[in-house]
Structures are given as structure tokens and as C-alpha cells.
């Protein structure tokens, strides 16, 4: 038997694309097909994470010159996605620390991205390889914003640092072409005029804006009109004006060439003014309007020529929930997008009081996932957000739905599905249930401690949970029973799995063993069968669909396949992972299994040929957390990068 993978090739360690059926040359540094056959590895779909946000801190969004793509930072990943079809996305993973900002060059050929250590990487935005052009370190701390000049040759990078708060340098050699000065605190944003004479402007927490002449860029004058933190500054597409906004809720318009104050925008409209800090501003393509995004949960549209408010969009349900605060925006052609603190991208129209579309996703690492019988994937992230993804074909692929109801921003430790019901084990020791893309209002059960692992029976009425206090409980029709496993020693349980076709239960222990039990009511009775051979504590268990096989993974990356009834080992040769196994799942035909590991790899294994495997190296930055088979030829994985990825395979 051999493996040939179908779908889309992941060709570089720093880029993954989401367009189907586009084949490219192989790069063995990223993914390999291990065994005797070809080294091709493919991904069918990439569903991007949302931008990472922080309360009270603006987030920079950027679009390409054609206004077709948006780019932003999400963890260590730089995400590019289509504005018209946001389910189509690409990722760049060249940063080794948390990325903070990314900007397209005016030519559209490059993207400059910065991170929390002060590094700026310039890389190819056109070719599929996204080759790194250059890397510099203009700052010693976080890069807050980046701007390109009209020639796509000079870059201004600003933010925080020990000796300076910004630098201007050439994109290819890193030579200095200006000095950023006159600020006494962190610089929040910068903008460069896109025609001659060259000009630039920066804004800072010191309540000042500084105007520069160039090139080389040098201090021209100080703008003292704001009385609070200045959060954003933008040149109009016409370059006739630039505008600044800040925490003082004021908007100032300046001459783009001289830097002189023209006026405060709509200074006399007290009723229409924002009631919270303005964190971002964007110009319309015709330079007639600006949009401001505020922590008061609104976006406002202003007519610059007539100096008046022309529209207001309220984000959210009208409540004062902080997740609806607006922290970033962009205006590209017909697409007007504002970013919520929750990471949602809100598509707006000037004449609409509410968003016309909301694109949601995860901002933090995905910690648990469960796949229902109708192929709805529930994913839960570190911040307690629960999303669903429909793989049944009944709705657009790649569009996340935020589950109705609330988990109280509590992390989900594990999830298990039976039919359409999903059990969720929360860090606060609560057991919750979800169905039909909603967290059920009733049925929350207190387990007594946070769960490590959950198993749900075929009827959906019984849940077995291994707790972090080393206890095991059976939840049956809402009643919690703490059970004794009846073994002769007191090894701590770590993980549990249940055979959907029978009452057989497997429990993995810290003493490296797997033991089997039968479930009767709320009691677990040992069968006497054990799986022996692991050298680290058991971290993952999975029964095949027919119940004939059990795969067990440990903290060292080893997987053993055994017969559940006897404990006899089928194979011990699934040992390619180098770190903790987080999840194992079987194909419907039980001929293959897939594993997700802390090492970031996703591996598909063969029962018939244990030495043949397909390794998707670095499938997820920071580790792959879950994996599920959608059918015999397709798996979906999640990871610490907050992304959902679909991989397709064929077996010969």
C-alpha cells in the first residue's frame, strides 16, 4: 500500500494557501510523505484565525493596492484573506515571536510585518513561496505600525524601544533614511505621503503628532492639538490631507503638505460625537469621507467637505459588552471593515445602522474540538469561544458560526460528541452541552474539579470524565457519581475513551498503562485487559468505529494499537512524533488513524503497513491540538495557531 495525497500542496515552511487543486513543487522542509513513495503533501482548505486584539490597543489592518486582500497579524502568523470571499485565506509563518502588524507595499509586491521583539520582515506577497526579502531590527521592543513610501523603497517602523521609538530605512539594505524624534512615549501609528514632496507623520501616547519632511525624513514641526493618547493617523488617498484621532474622542484634519491644522472635524456636533476613545480611522477611496472606529462600540462616517456626520453603525446587540468595542478598520473600494475586540471583522455600509456581514473566528489556541454525526465541527479556544464549522455542504465552507449562548470566557479542556450532542468540559469544573450551534441553557453539571478528558456514550445520556484531581466521575442524566476503578493499585487516571458500539471503556493512566472497563449504570467494572508497552503517561485514546481496535498515545509521542478485549498489541511502530500526543482519530473504515501532537505535526497511519505513514510537518505553529476524519480520505485539524485546516489523502 502507498499513500498519495490530494488537494493543495503546502510548499514552504512559512506559507500555506487555501485555493484548491493548485499543485506546486515539493519542499521537504515542510511536509513529507514517509515511506517508499512521493514526498507530496497537500492541504485542501485553510480557515484563518481572527486578528488578535487587546483592550484599549488599536490593531492595524492593511489592504493590497487593488483592494482585494486584507492582511493582519494573529499570534505568530500573518494572515492574508480575500475581502470579497473571506473564507479564502493564506498564512505566512516566518516570525518566531508574536507578530503585531503587517502592511502591503504600494506596489503590492511585498508585505512588511513586525513583531513584539522589534523585528521587521519584508517578504514576497505575490509568489506562492513568499520568499523573505530582508529582515531588520529597527526597534528593541514592540512594532506598533509600519508605513511604506510611494516608491515602495523606504519603510517607517514605529512602536516601543529603549533608545528610540521609530526608524526610517530602505527595505532592501536597511540603510537609515531619516530620524524619528520628538516623542517621549511609545508611538502608536505612522503614515507616509504617497507623492512628492515626501512627508510623514507619527502619533504617540505623549498626546503629540510629529510632522516630517523627506527624504531623508527629518523633524519639521510638532502638532499639539490632542489632549489624550493619539491612537491613529492616516493620509487621504489624494494626499491633500491627513487626519488624526485619539483617546480624547477628537478628530483633527491637517494639510498634507505643510502639516498645518485645517480644523477639528465636526467640532460643533456634540450629539454625534463618539463617547469613547477613537482607536482607528480610514479614508474612503475618493478622499471625501472618513470612518472612525471607537471603544464606544460604534463606527461613524464623516463628510470631510461638508464637515458633518453622515452615518453611524452600531456593533453588537446594543449592550455594553466589551467584545463589541472597535479597535481597527480599513476602507478598500466597496469593502468597509471594522474590527471588534472579539476578533470579528464587521463589513459595513454607510447607510446601514448595523453590519451587513460579520466574519468570526478564533483568536487564541484551539484547545478542544468535537465532530458531530452530521459533520459539524465544534471548536473551542483558550479564551472560551465556541465556534462551529459546517462540513456537510449545507452552508458555505470555511465560515465559522459563533455558538449561541455563553461559556463565560472559560477555557474548554475537552469535548466529546455523540450524534449531534456535544459535551464540553470547562476549566471551572462545569460540564456543559451544545447542540445545533448553541450552548444549551439548561443542563450544566458541576463535576467537582476541572476535567482532563471526556467520553460520551452513543445515547448521549452518560458522560465519563477524568478529573484533574485524579478522580473519575460518571454523569448519567445529570446525576454525578464519583467511581472507584476497582484496580489493585492507585495510579492516577489521565484520559478516557468509550466504544460507541458497546459499553467498553478505556482509561489511560500515569503509570503508562491502559486498562479496560465495562460501564453498567454508573459503575465501571475492570475487564482485566491491559495495554502494556508505553514508557510515558497516556495522553490520548481512541476506539475505531467498529470497536475492534484501540489506539493509545503517550506524552513521549509513541502510539500503540491493541485489541480492546484482550489488550494484545497489534503494532508498536507508530512512533514518529517527538512530543505529547494530544488527539487520535480513526478513519470510518478503521484502516487508518490520524494523530495530532505538541510537535506541530499531523500524521496519518496505516494499520496494514505500520511503517508507512504520511507526515504533515509543522501543520500548526505551536502544536496540533485535535484531528478528526471527515471521511476515509480527509482529515480536519486544529492547533495553537487558532486555525482550522483540512487535509485530503488518497491511498493506493
Précis, in short:
One of its GO terms (molecular function) is actin filament binding. It comes from Coemansia guatemalensis. The protein is 0% helix and 48% strand.
Can you put this structure into words, describing what you see?
The protein starts with a strand and ends with a strand. Helix content is 0%, strand content 48%. It is elongated and about 85 Å long. Strand 58 and strand 59 (634-639) form a beta hairpin. The protein folds into two domains: 50-359, Methylamine Dehydrogenase, Chain H (7 Propeller); 366-651, Methylamine Dehydrogenase, Chain H, CATH 2.130.10.10. With 652 residues, it is mostly beta strands. The protein contains no helices and 61 strands. Strands 2-8-7-6-5 form a five-stranded antiparallel β-sheet, with no helix packed on it. A five-stranded antiparallel β-sheet has the order 3-57-56-55-54, with no helix packed on it.
Instruction: Report the portion of residues in β strands.
Output: over 45%
Low-confidence stretches: 1-40
Shape: elongated
Q: Mind telling me the C-alpha Rg?
A: 27 Å
Main CATH class of the largest domain: Mainly Beta
**Based on the structure given, which CATH architecture of the largest domain is correct?**
7 Propeller
The proportion of residues forming helix, as a percent range, comes to under 10%
Instruction: Provide a count of the helices.
Output: 0
What's the total number of strands?
61
- Strand order of the main beta sheet, please? 2-8-7-6-5
Q: Can you identify the CATH superfamily of the largest domain? A: YVTN repeat-like/Quinoprotein amine dehydrogenase
- The total domain count is 2
* Average pLDDT metric: 92
What's the main sheet like? 5 strands, antiparallel
Amino acid at each position: 500500500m502507498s499513500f498519495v495525497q490530494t488537494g493543495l500542496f503546502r510548499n514552504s515552511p512559512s506559507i500555506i494557501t487555501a485555493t484548491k487543486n493548485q499543485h506546486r513543487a515539493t519542499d521537504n522542509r515542510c511536509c513529507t510523505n514517509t515511506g517508499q513513495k512521493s514526498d507530496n503533501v497537500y492541504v485542501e482548505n485553510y480557515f484563518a484565525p481572527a486578528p488578535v486584539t487587546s483592550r484599549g490597543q488599536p490593531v492595524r489592518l492593511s489592504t493590497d493596492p487593488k483592494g482585494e486582500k486584507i492582511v493582519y497579524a494573529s499570534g505568530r502568523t500573518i494572515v492574508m484573506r480575500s475581502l470579497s470571499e473571506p473564507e479564502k485565506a493564506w498564512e505566512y509563518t516566518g516570525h518566531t515571536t508574536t507578530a503585531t502588524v503587517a502592511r502591503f507595499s504600494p506596489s503590492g509586491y511585498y508585505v512588511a510585518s513586525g513583531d513584539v521583539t522589534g523585528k521587521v520582515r519584508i517578504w514576497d506577497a505575490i509568489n506562492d513561496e513568499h520568499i523573505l526579502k530582508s529582515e531588520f531590527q529597527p526597534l528593541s521592543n514592540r512594532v506598533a505600525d509600519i508605513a511604506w513610501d510611494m516608491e515602495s523603497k523606504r519603510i517607517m517602523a514605529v512602536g516601543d524601544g529603549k533608545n528610540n521609538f521609530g526608524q526610517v530605512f530602505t527595505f532592501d539594505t536597511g540603510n537609515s533614511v531619516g530620524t524619528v524624534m520628538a516623542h517621549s512615549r511609545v508611538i502608536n501609528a505612522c503614515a507616509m505621503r504617497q507623492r512628492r514632496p515626501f512627508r510623514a507623520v507619527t502619533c504617540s501616547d505623549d498626546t503629540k503628532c510629529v510632522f516630517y519632511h523627506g527624504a531623508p525624513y527629518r523633524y519639521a514641526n510638532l502638532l499639539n492639538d490632542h489632549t489624550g493618547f493619539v491612537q491613529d493617523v492616516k493620509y487621504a488617498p489624494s494626499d491633500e490631507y491627513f487626519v488624526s484621532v485619539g483617546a480624547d474622542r477628537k478628530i483633527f484634519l491637517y494639510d498634507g503638505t505643510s502639516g498645518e491644522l485645517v480644523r477639528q472635524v465636526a467640532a460643533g456636533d456634540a450629539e454625534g460625537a463618539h463617547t469613547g476613545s477613537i482607536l482607528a480611522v480610514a479614508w474612503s477611496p475618493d478622499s471625501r469621507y472618513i470612518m472612525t472606529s471607537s471603544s464606544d462600540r460604534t463606527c461613524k462616517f464623516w463628510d470631510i467637505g461638508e464637515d458633518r456626520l453622515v452615518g453611524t453603525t452600531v456593533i453588537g446587540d446594543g449592550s455594553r459588552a466589551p467584545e463589541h468595542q472597535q479597535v481597527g478598520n480599513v476602507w478598500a473600494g466597496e469593502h468597509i471593515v471594522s474590527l471588534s475586540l472579539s476578533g470579528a471583522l464587521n463589513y459595513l455600509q454607510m447607510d446601514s445602522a448595523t453590519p451587513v456581514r460579520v466574519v468570526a473566528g478564533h483568536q487564541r489556541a484551539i484547545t478542544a474540538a468535537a465532530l458531530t454525526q452530521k459533520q459539524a465541527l465544534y471548536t473551542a479556544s483558550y479564551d472560551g469561544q465556541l465556534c462551529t464549522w459546517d462540513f456537510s455542504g449545507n452552508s458555505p465552507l470555511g465560515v465559522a458560526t459563533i455558538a449561541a449562548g455563553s461559556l463565560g470566557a472559560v477555557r474548554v479542556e475537552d469535548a466529546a460528541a455523540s450524534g449531534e450532542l456535544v459535551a464540553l468540559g470547562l476549566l471551572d469544573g462545569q460540564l456543559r452541552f451544545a447542540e445545533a450551534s448553541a450552548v444549551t441553557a439548561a443542563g450544566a453539571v458541576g463535576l467537582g474539579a476541572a476535567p482532563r478528558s471526556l467520553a460520551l456514550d452513543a445515547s448521549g445520556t452518560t458522560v465519563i470524565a477524568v478529573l484533574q484531581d485524579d478522580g473519575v466521575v460518571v454523569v448519567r442524566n445529570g446525576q454525578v457519581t464519583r467511581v472507584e476503578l476497582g484496580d489493585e493499585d492507585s495510579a492516577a487516571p489521565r484520559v478516557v475513551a468509550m466504544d460507541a458500539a458497546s459499553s467498553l471503556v478505556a482509561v489511560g493512566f500515569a503509570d503508562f498503562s491502559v486498562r479496560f472497563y465495562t460501564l453498567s449504570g454508573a459503575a465501571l467494572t475492570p475487564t482485566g485487559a491491559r495495554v502494556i508497552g508505553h514508557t510515558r503517561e497516556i495522553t490520548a485514546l481512541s476506539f475505531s468505529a467498529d470497536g475492534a481496535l484501540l489506539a493509545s498515545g503517550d506524552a513521549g509521542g509513541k502510539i500503540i494499537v491493541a485489541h480492546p478485549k484482550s489488550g494484545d498489541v497489534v503494532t508498536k511502530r507508530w512512533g514518529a512524533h517527538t512530543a505529547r500526543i494530544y488527539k487520535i482519530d480513526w478513519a470510518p473504515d478503521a484502516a487508518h488513524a490520524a494523530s495530532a501532537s505538541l510537535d506541530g505535526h499531523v500524521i496519518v497511519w496505516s494499520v496494514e503497513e505500520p511503517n508507512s505513514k504520511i507526515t504533515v510537518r509543522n501543520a500548526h505553529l505551536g502544536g496540533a491540538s485535535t484531528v478528526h476524519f471527515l471521511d476515509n480520505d480527509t482529515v480536519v485539524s486544529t492547533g495553537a495557531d487558532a486555525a482550522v485546516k483540512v487535509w485530503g489523502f488518497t491511498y493506493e
